[in-house]
Amino acid sequence: MTDAANIHKAYELAVEQYESLGVNVQNALNRLSRIAISVHCWQGDDVVGFEGNEGALGNGLAVTGNYPGRARNPDELRNDLEVAYSLIPGKHRLNLHALYGEFDGFVDRDAIDIEHFQGWIDWARSQDVNLDFNPSFFSHEKASDGFTLAHADSGIRQFWIDHGTACRKIAAAMGKAQANACINNFWVPDGLKDTPANRKEPRERLAASLDEIFTENFSANQTLDTVECKLFGIGSESYVVGSHEFYMGYAISRNKMLCLDAGHFHPSEMISDKISSVLMYVPQLLLHVSRGVRWDSDHVVTYTDELQTIMQEIVRGEYLDRVHIGLDFFDASINRVAAWAIGTRNALKALLAALLEPTEMLQQLEREGDYTARLALIEEQKMMPLGAIWNHYCQTAGVPVGIDWLEKTRQYEANVQSLREVELGAANV
Ligand SMILES: C[C@H](O)[C@H](O)[C@@H](O)C(=O)CO
Ligand SMILES: [Mn+2]
């Protein structure tokens, strides 16, 4: 049902239903429209980047699938992103990795500079999109033995320290150019496949390297540093230097932001339960909203219980100004623009559901110990007409309603992506 009059009729009936629970729908939609999700550039090209070494993805990252049409250069990636943004209601951010610079010839990671990202800064301004950033401590010969900032070799450590330092300068320039802080997220893959004999020293080296990178103070209006933990990776099954405890302690002691990736914990451990704990001790949080299937597989975000609980926690805790929502998935088995549309729209739907909850009523019932009514109301919520509100939101935002966005990606695939000559499978492991 994508007829405009029907969408409006359904919306009005839905508003009445929400009002009967004391929920102000317009207020929820206004709040939703102010939330900017950081869309990750790397879904568009399978985390390959533009350094000219296609197929070198490593350090525990793996992209599977051979779907044709991968973006091969910055212009293609930017075009793909513009199509994706046109399918998603609201104004959103772009999360760039350092290996997506525009390099005229070989530039090693320790030598990257603002000029290599000027094209992205200009494009972002033209699109009214704010940028976030990430140093890339992977897919490089100096990371090939699994260690970077925690490496035992001081020369290799210094190389990666210089990379981290260069990335902070670039992130600050982005933040200054857009007059909005650029979040710079540090994920460091260092770890071991088999049982370590020494867990202590690499952690001491990682902390010392990070301290050196973070020596220079940048205005919080320009850039905010985040550190991302991980339990295990492919090739680092037994030991990851930057574990949760490591970074939790690091972030608290250095007043840094923490990044929680939904795929970086034991499969039965949910980041939704960590948000209110962590925010008691760190100033702000970055989330990498992802979907692990058995392991940190970075599947496209779907409308799971955990996605809904993450968004409920953010809204119920009134953390919208302290939690930055980023996405982190990479699936090369489906159309990559569609992957962005599906994942981002789902994150927004879950946020909308959380904003439409009668939170105060639920929390009051809990305070009174009326767990029966709390459970009853939570379950009744699941039958509320969320879709009618979502369709109206999409329509007023000028983006496709319902599944209509799929046809747009099909047309784009037929007219643009399918014409790209991609060697099937070359970029994937
Ligand atoms: C490419 C990203 O930085 C990467 O996915 C990182 O955030 C991560 O989650 C690694 O497992
Ligand atoms: Mn991540």
Describe this structure in words.
This protein is α/β, with parallel strands linked by helices and 429 residues long. It has a domain at 36-305 and 318-340: TIM Barrel (Alpha-Beta Barrel). 41% of the residues lie in helices and 12% in strands. It is built from 14 helices and twelve strands. The chain has helices at 4-19, 25-33, 74-85, 118-127, 154-178, 200-213, 244-254, 275-278, 305-316, 336-355, 359-367, 371-381, 386-397, 404-415; strands spanning 38-40, 93-97, 131-134, 182-187, 191-192, 223-228, 239-240, 257-261, 285-289, 291-293, 295-299, 323-327. The strands form four sheets. Strands 4-6-8-9-12 form a five-stranded parallel sheet. α2 crosses α10 (336-355) and α3 runs parallel beside α10 (336-355). The longest helix is centred in the middle third of the chain and has 25 residues, at 154-178. The radius of gyration is 22 Å and the shape is globular. Bound molecules: ligand L2XQQQDX and manganese (II) ion. Manganese (II) ion is lined by residues 187, 228, 261, 288, 328.
